Amino acid sequence: MGDCILVTGGAGFVGSHSCVALAEAGYTPLILDNLGNSDVRVVERLGRITGTVPTFIEGDVRDRALLDRVFAMHDVAGVMHFAGLKAVGDSVRDPIGYYDNNVNGSLVLAAAMQQAGVKTLIFSSSATVYGEPERSPIPEDAPRRPANPYGHSKRMVEQALADLQHAQPEWRIALLRYFNPVGAHESGLIGEHPQGKPNNLMPFVCQVAVGQRAELAVHGGDYPTHDGTGVRDYVHVMDLAEGHVAALRHVAKAPGLLTLNLGSGRGASVLDVVKAFERASGRPVAHTIGPRRPGDVSAYWGDASLAEATMGWRARRDLDQMCADSWRWQQGNPRGYE
Ligand code: WQD
Prior knowledge:
Oligomer: single chain
Bound molecules: UDP-4-deoxy-4-formamido-beta-L-arabinopyranose
CATH topology of the domain at 4-185 and 234-265 and 302-315: Rossmann fold
Number of helices: 11
């Protein structure tokens, strides 16, 4: 049984896929999740994928007493911190809830880690810390000008962790900025299952293809892009998960602070995604071009070269595989984890 890694939010979309990558790399994931936006049945699915059902603790990272008990009861070698809220629109409506979950939660976790002497932390950050980019591809040293409370919350945690590592140089910290995570594990046993009407593109496209929703509203057809629709950097969730393991291995070599984009380095438009999904599923995805969504930028994608230069990681799965894997998950689980 390899090193125990505490995975906060480990029943969630990126967290659960990272548990697979951890197990495949010989680590022992230990899941802490408050099930606020995830389903406990993921844990059994992880057992079917990896051969071992991970230990699951239901709880919230803001519960300091619980964290102290977790560190007392388990020999935790490091932490991957996914627990948090991640919907931009919701963050505008509920900024305090976002700062409490994302900032306060991360600070309580870091304090508990410090007390327990656990000083290896992989933090789930986001490309939304960049806000409206001056240009794409976006390098890690681009200005951070978040445009919403969600992005600000991630930026604040990045700052707090950078200050911590500066004050205590023995810390080993990676700040991983995701672009748009999509797809699902190839088994089709775990995947993205948003509660209610999906905000994000890929789950919405999946639900149209499987017949749960009538059609996709394309948010804007008049952007200055190759086909007028919004362009983003989609990255397969398993590539992202493997990127977390690569970062864990990298920081294990030496203390320090690592800040990396995890993206494909390529832009794809909404219509590119629709066409790729139709190829992958063999199903039409009915769609209409509607008005732009407030807050959207026209195009952004990441410069992923630093992750490759630093730790030899790059996204290997292309848009067609992202769509094929999403479709397999959606077909097998039309109503999520039942
Ligand atoms: C992608 C593209 C939309 C839905 C968000 C968060 C970001 C990150 C990833 C956490 C855009 C278009 C979408 C629809 C559409 N999450 N679209 N119709 O906004 O790039 O990023 O998710 O870190 O923080 O901001 O992702 O999937 O919502 O949109 O046309 O029904 O699809 O306009 O061009 P986004 P998205």
